[in-house]
Automatic annotation (TrEMBL):
It is found in: Cell outer membrane. It comes from Pedobacter psychroterrae. PANTHER family: OUTER MEMBRANE PROTEIN TOLC. One of its GO terms (cellular component) is efflux pump complex. Pfam families: OEP. This is TolC family protein.
Length: 448
């Protein structure tokens, strides 16, 4: 009975835990675009890993600095000669010429303890390494900045895609509502003998197609929201509601200006390549510094213990201490350093070429993105006008049909035209928002 009670309690506890987990997963989050970006910068895996890389770079700098700091080590040694080493000495030493006398040198037990200090006094490679480690840290910070910018761009585009799908769904719902009313009115006219059955069927076909399209857009909206959650680093199972409106986003226009000849300097990619060039220059200096000598200082203190009796081994000691300098200079190494320097110089030239190419590429990217954004603005304005005209045409066509001076084909054609105008508007709206983000990224306006 007691085990049964424990089992029931365990089941209740597990059920409560699962319920809490499901509640956490299904909890709905309401985010604006800015809030979504802030969430991504705090939770997205790539951003978190970039932060870790920054910490690794900081530790690498400290590690490099540590090479030039005093290095202290200790040692302890114990030896038990099971067989004491034997040497042969000439018999003349002992008055026995012509023979060799075996003699044992040493004692059975030997032990030693010591401490050693090493200090790097001068090394050209170390000095260059210190400079390179700081530049490496700078490179990691800029890589982290690039990761944050890329994350912001991805989140923004995914957010806009979800907003466009929401807007498209709203247009379809409004169209379905109007179409349902038209079908009801046409059925009433048919029952009273003022319309034909084919008129109702034509409208019903349009409604069926529109309902199918609505289902597709609904699924697309779910896909876009899931993509947004993925880009944010949010669990896919979590609920997410978008609070920004498409009208608010459209009002935030991007100013299209004449291309600035120095606009490339706002791009993190150019800064990264400039940092890489610094590393290439330091690599050249490192090879050059290998022509210089190296100077190190050292000091050590040791105590040795010897005895044939283990219990008496540490009763007395024989101290030794020494200080000194080590000077080394690699004078000839088969020309390796010369060719290493030449390769390092060639690497700098390659980076210079890449900088020039990137500069041109950024200018071309800005030019294209400006034109695409301007075209998108005009396209949305045109499609909005077309959408308004399509609605007005449908309204007038319905009135004419209800008054008996228009045909059902005209109504069907107007409904189809409205649907086409809505689709064109949605496509133009999506292009506008994506081109807006591309322009901001191209001109370096996205900074985090």
């Amino acid at each position: 009975m007691k085990n049964k009670i424990h089992f029931i309690i365990l089941l209740l506890f597990m059920a409560h835990t699962m319920a809490r987990a499901q509640t956490a997963d299904s909890q709905s989050n309401s985010f604006s675009l800015k809030q979504a970006i802030d969430y991504a910068l705090a939770h997205q895996s790539n951003v978190l890993n970039a932060g870790i890389d920054e910490e690794i770079a900081k530790n690498t700098v400290r590690q490099t600095v540590g090479i030039g700091l005093p290095q202290v080590s200790t040692n302890f040694n114990f030896q038990d000669y099971l067989k004491v080493p034997t040497s042969l000495l000439p018999g003349e030493v002992f008055g026995q010429p012509g023979t060799q006398i075996p003699v044992q040198f040493g004692v059975k037990y030997n032990s030693s303890v010591g401490i050693e200090l090493n200090q790097l006094i001068f090394d050209g490679s170390y000095i260059v390494g210190l400079q390179a480690s700081k530049t490496y840290k700078e490179l990691s910070v800029r890589n982290s900045t690039r990761t944050r910018i890329e994350t912001v761009v991805a989140v923004t585009k995914a957010y806009y895609s979800a907003l466009v799908s929401t807007e498209q769904l709203g247009l379809i719902d409004a169209n379905l509502s109007q179409l349902t009313k038209s079908i009801n009115d046409t059925e009433a006219l048919f029952k009273n003998g003022f319309a034909e059955k084919i008129d109702v069927d034509r409208l019903q076909v349009l409604k069926n197609n529109l309902e199918t399209e609505r289902e597709n857009v609904t699924r697309l909206l779910v896909v876009n929201v899931d993509l947004l959650k993925f880009q944010m680093g949010m669990p896919i199972q979590a609920g997410l509601e978008l609070t920004d409106k498409i009208s608010d986003v459209r009002s935030e226009s991007v100013q299209v200006q004449v291309i600035d000849s120095a606009a490339y300097r706002n791009r993190i990619e150019y800064s990264l390549l400039e940092t890489q060039r610094k590393l290439d220059e330091l690599d050249f200096k490192r090879y050059k510094s290998q022509f210089l000598p190296t100077l190190k200082g050292f000091a050590s203190a040791n105590k040795s213990f010897q005895s044939n009796d283990f219990t008496d081994l540490y009763s007395r000691n024989f101290p030794t201490s020494v200080i000194g300098l080590t000077f080394s200079w690699n004078l000839i190494n088969g020309g390796q350093r010369i060719y290493q320097m030449r390769n390092a110089k060639l690497a700098i030239m390659k980076t210079d070429n890449n900088l020039f190419n990137l500069k041109n590429g950024i200018a071309q990217e800005i030019s294209v993105s400006q034109k695409m954004y301007a075209n998108s603005l005009r396209s949305v304005e045109n499609q909005e006008r077309n959408l308004g005209l399509a609605r007005e045409i449908l309204r007038v066509t319905r009135i004419k049909y209800e008054q008996g001076v228009g045909s059902s084909i005209e109504v069907t054609t107007a409904e189809t035209s409205l649907k086409e105008a809505q689709n064109n508007y949605i496509k133009a709206l999506y292009d506008l928002l994506i081109n807006k983000v591309n322009l901001q990224q191209a001109t370096g306006q996205i900074n985090y």
